[in-house]
Amino acid sequence: MKFYKDHYDVIVIGGALAGLSSALMLAEKGKNVLVLERHNLPGGIASSFVRGGIEIEAALHEMMSIGDKNNRLKVGKFFDDMGVDIEWLKVPEAYHASLPGLEVTLHPGLETFAKEVDAVVPGTYQKVLDLLNLCNTVFDSVNELSIHPMSKAKMLIKHEAFVKTAGYTTKEVIDSFDLPKKAQDLLAPYWIYVGSGFSDLPFTIYSVLMADYVGYGSYIPRKFSHEMSLKMAERAEAMGVQIEYRQHVEKILVKNGQAYGVRTARGDEIFADYVISSSYPNKVYTSMIEPASAVPEKAIKMVNGRRLSLTAFSVIMILDDTAENLGIKDYSVFRGDTMDTDALYKDLAGLGPYRYLTCICHNLGNDTATPPGTCSYSITTLPRVNGWKTVKAADYDKIKHQVAKQMIDDMSAYLGVNLLDHILEIVIETPMTVNRYTNAWNGCIYGYAHTMEDHIIARLQTAEEESFIKHLEFSGAHAISGDGMGPAVTNGRKAAKNVLDTMAAEEASK
Amino acid sequence: MKIKGFLKDVTGASRVTKARLEAFAAGSAKPETVDPIAEVVKEWHPKKFDVVVTEIRDASPTAKTVRFKRADGQKLPYFYAGQFIVLDFKIGESIISRPYSISSAPYQARQEDSFAEITVRRSKGDGFIADYINDSVKVGDKFQAMMGCGQFYWEPLRDAKHVVALAGGVGITPFASMAKEIANGTLDFDLTILYGSVSADDIIMKDELDALKSDKVHVVHVLSGDDPDWKGEKGFLTADLIKKYSAPDTTYFICGPQVMYTFLREELKKLDAPQRRIRFEVFGQAKDITTFAGYPQELKDKTFRLTVRRGIHEDVIPAKATESLVVALERAGIRIETACRSGECGFCRTKVLSGSVYVCPENDGRRAADKDFGYVHACAAYPTSDITIKIPIE
Fold it and tell me: The pTM is what?
């Protein structure tokens, strides 16, 4: 039986947001694309599941880079352009910050946000707004330069703020604004979405994070992230992409330093001119390239020289009462007993107790999230893999429950309601869960850490020399734009663009 | 603008690029091939593996307990008491899979002599795999297995410390597993099993269960048949009987035949138990799909053309209106992966490309967006026209 065509232009390994974005863009250019996904549905962790008859979001807190219908940001625009028609719901607030001495709900809009900070820490309006405006200027530059690169000299004139902040950490730039500590704390909660402490987080990344989320707000699909993943997959198939589920790619076939196909666990050898891998470079270079001798030592040194970013630990519950009755007032709460991001980052290397929690109640952003009389509530922390790598199978269940209990108790104390008395359904997601369903290396959902040693600008500058296998591209959180569902789409598009550019260049040189 | 000084400000990009290259140069040249997170996953949720039957014994005059171990000598995976195993049976040209609640305890899967057991009752004519197991399976037989499936287990963060299990017939198996684990001291809650059978002869695993009785495990047999010699509880598992064995805060676990579910749903309404305290095991494949609301009766004798797309390959097979798409595929020898066979787990998620189906309302565990795009769980979907579906290549 013949299940595959003799040849594809491109094989995409992994049918999550990045892989599907690659597929959509390539299909739009008329390319013949095959997507191989090991799970039986698209999306990776951008998914949902059904428990006790109730559909539950698996991972998405909020999407960045979507924007209002009339003023789309890049990801929202990409979906529109591709004909992926998602019902986006705007998340009502930026976040509620629950920090020592602070209980504040902040809303999107740079000026609104600055005013709300000023209401709590009087006299900070102008400085906070200046900082947010600086973020916004850098954000605009990043977006423009990602499409239209230019010379350094020209960049300094046209993108001064971007150039001049590029070499600094978030802490260094924020410190230069001389803000009171409380105001600084209120500007920090989103840090967990990029996963590095401020003394190591490039200000460039912080800028994008703040300008995008605070400036434009965030969005969720009405029917959970599965709506987004499925609509991307359906659209891709309508455009001629072949998507095959339950196909686990074990090997990427390489000849003369160039990828030419893959082999699946089933034993199918499938051929293509290009391969795009959502599998981590760590996995690809250490066990997927065939022959292994095609992997240069530099590639191994590179993956070993990079620090993996965060994984996920999430307690997801369906509660047997409404958010209102349970005293849940905000869509998202960031709660910490400190806002010292460096100290928090250090803690994330352990197995808890975790001191920084993100809580989401989907019902407060989506009136159809759960059946009447119930609500969903998730408590998440994003640990580093260090601690979890030491967990043995025999202790896994105990540790998982201990950590979950601590998180539930912490939020019960905050809400003044014992959540344990209201659980209809509970699912505890761990790094192991992520690995089980996506095969992500170390269960890592964030790719490589955004640090001063692995700066996005440096990633862009050295991208070409890090292309160790010809006609093999990477897309996913481990690619240049890093973590997050919005950046996953950008990463997927970039991989497709690289393929299209190489195709054009090789065509031209013929 | 100025952050620290012109020269330092404008050389940032070069500085970070240099830092990156230095970090990579300092990286180890030794490939790290083992992912410790994936290693834990392998022990909890391994891919399918072969098991070999090591022992078969009677669990009642009409039921057998089958013990097996992993064929490769490794230990069986971790699981929670109450979960099921999926076994693949090769019968003729077909591979047919079935879920069975594991009747042995989790600790027995992890001890030196690692094993697991299922207990299967001979059917009354409608379960040909159940009969196959009772009649034809022998020591040394090998099957493919997938283990640690299902949501029917005691979750310490959710469930009450006092549990009343309502079991009917072979539905005793998940509770046998829980009782054994409690007896071993590795699961800690108070379990009272109200076990309904027709006659004393029908009680499955009676000796085993009675041997597990302790201050934490209580087994109450309830006979519905007319037996003048029976001194214990009689009748059905009524609200009054259930109340008698309940504590103020009790979680009810229910596993048994479909008629029992219908009965108990009404009885449980008479208790004041909140919804979160009532947990039914999945419904199982509908015994007779034509009895469900909205089933198009006029089609029940029809057989449709089912076009099955796998990759670019297509097959056309017959599909009876009263049999699920999974059954049609298995009859035709086309492999489809299933687990719960109750529409819940989504293993058999299938796209209907054209044509129509009836979905069993008891077993509709689909995601909302999946419904919008014509996806079905093939174990719970019945053809109502000629249809074309796409399924994964196995």
Answer: 0.97
